[in-house]
Specification:
- The structure holds two protein chains of two kinds.
- By secondary structure, chain A is of the alpha/beta class.
- Helix content of chain A is about 45%, strand content about 10%.
- Chain A is built from 18 helices and ten strands.
- In chain A, β9, α17 (about 360-370) and β10 (about 380-385) form a beta-alpha-beta unit.
- In chain A, α2 crosses α5 and α16 packs across α17.
- Chain A starts with 9 loop residues before the first helix and ends in a 5-residue tail after the last helix.
- Mean pLDDT of chain A is about 95; it is low at about 1-5.
- By secondary structure, chain B is of the alpha+beta class.
- Chain B is about 35% helix and about 20% strand.
- Chain B contains 16 helices and 19 strands.
- Chain B has helices at about 1-10, 20-25, 50-60, 115-120, 140-145, 150-155, 190-195, 230-240, 255-260, 285-300, 315-325, 325-330, 355-365, 395-410, 430-435, 435-450; strands at about 20, 40-45, 65-70, 85-90, 95-100, 105, 125, 160-170, 175, 205-210, 210-215, 215-225, 245-250, 275-280, 305-310, 340, 345, 370-375, 380-390.
- In chain B, strands 12, 13, 14, 15, 16, 17, 18 and 19 form an eight-stranded antiparallel sheet that branches. A five-stranded antiparallel sheet of chain B has the order 5-6-10-8-9.
- In chain B, a hairpin with a 4-residue loop joins β5 and β6.
- Chain B is globular.
- The mean pLDDT of chain B is about 95.
- The chains are: A alpha/beta, B alpha+beta.
- Chains A and B meet through β2, α2 and α3 of A and α2 and α12 of B.
């Protein structure tokens, strides 16, 4: 048997559906090299990866570092799946091959380290539950009294926002907004664990869903009827679990923007005006957009903010260009990720906005990191949407 | 050759422009067809001199060379041959010069068709030969295969829009073949000779193409029929009335289903057995409507029902995009059965379309394999899509027999085995039957230009 025992079941369902037409290459961000837009080698395109998957499956090629590189430079932007005329589930194949790579001990060191942290501490940074609330230093008193209290709404913060100082403003601003709106909400605090998304992206669905189940148990103990997220990756993982077990969770899961958008339509969320934002471009995060189909809620909110003129990029919604922050690519090859982010920044600069707004911590982190490397972008501000909302409500500055 | 081969390649190309990596070679070992073969090396030139140098090396060492664009060919034309240097032209993808007086554009061969037209849009002109694979096909590949597509009924094929080509011949000499003028009567038409030669006579390193103004308006009329045969008769009637649109496409019931399964928002008839899509374009919307009324009248006299005219450019774009991808979405029609590209590009005279449709229906029944039918009916070009269980050898064997019957049926009706995808490896066996002694002439030309047979050997002839 060829050394591909973990992926034979993909033959009929994924690899054989590919007609090799190459449509997926046209919009694959990994296939085109950063600002130059030069086509890379075929193995960096969705079609190239399917071909390599077929080669592994049929035992025609050995698993090599080149193949690992190919499969760990997919951003999981889902453009290929969205575009594929023959319905090939490319990202499922990539997850499966990543799982196979792990089974052969060839996982990139960055991924191994990440999984090791997850296994030992329950979060991707290896910090442990005790530091879960370090994001809330500025609003500690307000958060402490909300933590682990049975409530209608539970806010699932996610690892990145919890532990990465540059992202702490995201949960801080959402919490300030929820308090302003008088929402009865709670947080898991140190009981919150990583959602499991990195396991999923590394091809280990079992471990991923174990994480989800642990979080579900903690959430259920607080009797929340709605769980809201500010990380699209976390929400996507819960949704995938829901689909996997073919049952409805004992609580609703929503992106926080959907929650706020509902309040906006009920006129419970109102922006007073007085803050000038100027022109803004909204970047559709892949995981929120193509994966979860959430395009309208952020736009509804941004359009409701006075003194903010929303400009649309040429490629938006289902066609939006990836920022390069997804798929664990940054954990394996930071430069590969930044090159794509620079390309995104250049696209944004074409509209000459004052501010670039996004709604995903990974996108924010990646775009803000790349902005400094693009000379023409020094005046461009990059903001997370929850920061913009809090500013518009005059809760933050 | 051994390591000296690797050294020679390294002398011509910087290390990021060539690869001997087995995974990369495997990724370049196929196109859309079922053929596959590993190349010895893949090289990615960024300029003409590198092409000249690698051809000169190959000529001395008698190493085969195969040119490749984006690998979207369906006949194996760009599939490597054993031991070859595969030249991937996708890094030579620049639009070099647009001349709006001469209405020409000069391009490198690796530019993708859709990218070319996107870059021309600001000048309100386009390269009007539009393959279904517009987002994938490179101009070099289109030249090599004499590609066409949706608009061939009005604009013809690639050969009608190429003014001049700069070519590297198998001896390493590089030359333009004609002059940058609209017409020239000086000797043999070597430009035409190169078009459709699938990289067997020379390697195109630059092309001077004609462009046309973008018509400001267009409308698509969708016409339903109770059978493909009825539709075929209607098409004959339209031509007899001298009514030639800017595009004329056919979709049978299963092709309509495939489109709906891919994009359910596309508005196509839910009950027709076949539909005809007729596009009219031009400067004046009123004139387009006047023309469509004429089409409408003939269609209604010939069994058509449920006529619908598109109302917006968004609807037009969505419709053509869905149509252009129906080939690949054929895999969605029957779960477990996936599209393979065999017998997929026949052309018959317009007055034999009805016979061909009948034949396809009978073949699908007798082979118990789904055949999804669509194509550029305005030029008699049908794309029967065969779907099989790809890992069932009996299905593949059956499909091979089926495609043979399809090709032979097209030939028997006075048609051709390829309208726009080329011969490559897939249709080589039919060429003697289709072209007779003309194939001998082709072989003599190949022998004269490439006596050592280094350019894409084993293809076409």
């Amino acid at each position: 048997m060829p050394e591909n025992a973990t992926i034979p079941n993909l033959a009929n369902t994924i690899i054989d559906t590919c007609a090799r037409c190459g449509k997926c290459k046209a919009n694959c961000p990994a296939y085109e090299e950063g600002i130059t837009g030069k086509p890379r080698w075929e193995i960096f395109s969705a079609r190239g990866r399917i071909r390599l998957g077929q080669g592994l499956l049929d035992g025609k090629i050995p698993l090599t570092e080149t193949i690992v590189k190919s499969f760990y430079t997919c951003f999981f932007c889902n453009n290929c799946v969205e575009d594929c005329p023959s319905g090939t589930k490319v990202t499922e194949l990539i997850r499966a091959v990543r799982g196979y790579i792990a089974s052969k001990g060839l996982q990139p060191p960055g991924i191994t380290a990440l999984e090791s942290n997850l296994g030992s501490s329950g979060d991707i940074f290896g910090m442990g539950g005790g530091d879960r609330l370090m994001w809330a230093l500025n609003i500690e008193d307000k958060v402490q009294e909300r933590t682990n209290t049975p409530s209608e709404v539970l806010y699932f913060v996610g690892c990145q926002e919890s532990f990465k100082g540059s992202l702490a403003e995201i949960p801080e601003n959402l919490v300030l907004t929820l308090l302003h709106l008088g929402i009865d909400f709670t947080l898991l605090g140190e009981k919150e664990l990583c959602c499991g998304n990195p396991y999923l992206l590394a091809g280990d669905e079992t471990k991923c869903f174990e994480q989800v189940e642990k979080n579900i148990a903690a959430i259920t103990s607080l009797r929340a009827s709605t769980v809201i997220f500010t990380c699209p990756g976390c929400l996507n993982t819960f949704k995938k679990y829901e689909k996997h077990v073919s049952t409805v969770l004992p609580f609703k899961i929503k992106f926080a923007l959907e929650f706020l958008s509902d309040l906006l339509s009920k006129k419970k969320l109102k922006f007073p005006g007085g803050v000038v934002f100027g022109t803004a471009v909204y970047h559709d995060p892949c995981e929120l957009g193509r994966h979860l189909g959430i395009y309208d809620a952020p736009r509804a909110i941004l359009k409701a903010i006075p003194n903010l003129k929303l400009l649309e990029l040429d490629k938006i919604r289902e066609n939006a260009m990836c920022c390069g922050g997804g798929g664990l690519v940054g954990a394996c090859d930071k430069n590969f990720s930044i090159e794509q982010a620079r390309r995104k920044i250049i696209e944004v600069l074409g509209k000459q906005p004052d501010v670039l707004i996004t709604s995903c911590p990974a996108c924010f982190d990646t775009l803000e990191g790349a902005r400094g490397t693009v000379e023409q972008a020094q005046q461009l501000k990059v903001k997370d949407i929850f920061k913009v909302i809090a500013e518009a409500l005059r809760l933050s500055s | 050759m051994g390591s000296s081969f690797e050294e020679a390649i390294a002398k011509i190309f910087p290390k990021e422009q060539y690869s001997f990596d087995p995974a990369i070679l495997y990724a370049y070992s196929s196109d859309v067809s079922l053929f596959e073969q590993l190349p010895r090396v893949v090289v990615r030139p960024t300029d003409k001199q590198q092409v000249v140098d690698v051809v000169k090396y190959a000529a001395v060492e008698k190493v085969p060379l195969v040119a490749r664009g984006n690998g979207s060919g369906a006949a194996g034309g760009a599939v490597p041959v054993k031991g070859c240097i595969l030249i991937d032209f996708t890094l030579m993808n620049k639009v070099l010069e647009v001349n709006l007086t001469n209405l020409t554009v000069r391009v490198q061969p690796g530019v993708v068709h859709a990218d070319l037209n996107n870059s021309l849009k600001k000048n309100k002109v386009l390269f009007p030969v539009v393959p279904g694979s517009s987002e994938m096909a490179t101009i070099g590949g289109m030249v090599g295969n004499n590609a066409s597509g949706l608009k061939a009924v009005k604009y013809g094929t690639t050969k009608d829009w190429v003014v001049d080509l700069q070519v590297v011949f198998p001896d390493g000499e590089m030359t333009w073949l004609s002059r940058p003028v609209r017409k020239s009567a000086t000797g043999l038409d070597l430009v035409r000779l190169m078009i459709g030669s699938e990289g067997t006579l020379g390697l195109v390193v630059e092309a001077l193409l004609r462009v046309a103004p973008i018509p400001p308006h267009r409308r698509i009329m969708q016409v339903s029929f109770k059978s493909l045969e009825d539709l075929g008769k209607c098409v004959s009637a339209l031509f007899q009335h001298g009514l030639i649109p800017s595009a004329m496409e056919v979709l049978d019931r299963s092709a309509i289903d495939a489109i709906h399964l891919y994009k359910n928002s596309v508005n196509l008839s839910p009950d027709a057995e076949a539909i005809l899509l007729l596009e009219e374009e031009g400067d004046e919307l009123g004139y387009i409507q006047f023309r469509l009324q004429k089409f409408q009248q003939v269609c209604q006299e010939n069994g058509a029902y449920n006529l619908h005219i598109s109302q917006s450019e968004k609807e037009n774009t969505q419709l053509w995009e869905a149509r252009s991808l129906v080939g690949a979405s054929s895999s969605l029609v029957k779960p477990g059965y996936n599209r393979i590209y065999v017998g997929e590009d026949i052309t018959v005279p317009i007055d034999r379309l009805v016979d061909m449709f009948k034949k396809l229906r009978d073949l699908s029944k007798s082979y118990a394999l789904p055949i999804i039918v669509f194509g550029h009916i305005g030029d008699g070009n049908i794309h029967p899509a065969i779907t099989v269980r790809k890992r069932v050898p009996e299905d593949l064997a059956l499909a091979d027999k089926l495609q043979d019957e399809i090709h032979r049926a097209a030939l028997a009706l006075g048609g051709s085995v390829s309208g726009e995808h080329g011969v490559g490896l897939a249709r080589k066996r039919y060429l003697p039957d289709e072209r007779g002694y003309a194939v001998e002439i082709m072989r003599k030309i190949k022998q004269a230009i490439d006596p050592d047979n280094i350019l894409n050997p084993s293809k076409i002839y």
